[in-house]
Amino acid sequence: MSRMIFVNLPVADLDRSKAFYEAVGFTNNPQFSDENAACMVWSDAIYAMLLKHDFWKTFTSKTIPDAKTTAQVLLALTQDSAAEVDAIVERAAKAGGSTDPTPKQDFDFMYGRSFEDPDGHIWENTFMDMAAVPGCEAPADQPGHLASQQA
């Protein structure tokens, strides 16, 4: 079995959160979704499990922090271009999220922006041109390499 990550997020309104994540590009896996949780798929290896607060509390006795005022993690996704970074942030804004809760990054080799979901969870989005990273040679067919985008 390949290695995967399931990011579990407490959400106040499951339907609203599911619609938000679908709007930014995740797809719902109904096989692992029900009235308490939604399995939102980003890739073959990355899943966000959206859990209603009462269901979340069955996994831990720790208090659910208010993600709009506190942060425990900054989640990060890579994108294949700077334009894709901008596009996902704009989709998040149109779907009810907020844009750029963390500083924008615009360096010679890296471009990044972030969005916040309706519950306050922050998702950073980054494009890195590996061929432009000092001391790093990326294969031409690697996503992020400029030659792969010109094909």
Automatic annotation (TrEMBL):
Pfam families recorded: Ble-like_N (PF22677)
Top-level taxon in the UniProt lineage: Bacteria
Gene3D superfamilies the record matches: 2,3-Dihydroxybiphenyl 1,2-Dioxygenase, domain 1
InterPro entries per UniProt: Glyas_Bleomycin-R_OHBP_Dase, Glyoxy/Ble-like_N, VOC_core
Residues in VOC domain copies: 3-128
PANTHER family: BLR2408 PROTEIN, BLR2520 PROTEIN
Protein name stated in the entry: Glyoxalase family protein
Organism listed in the record: Pelagerythrobacter marensis
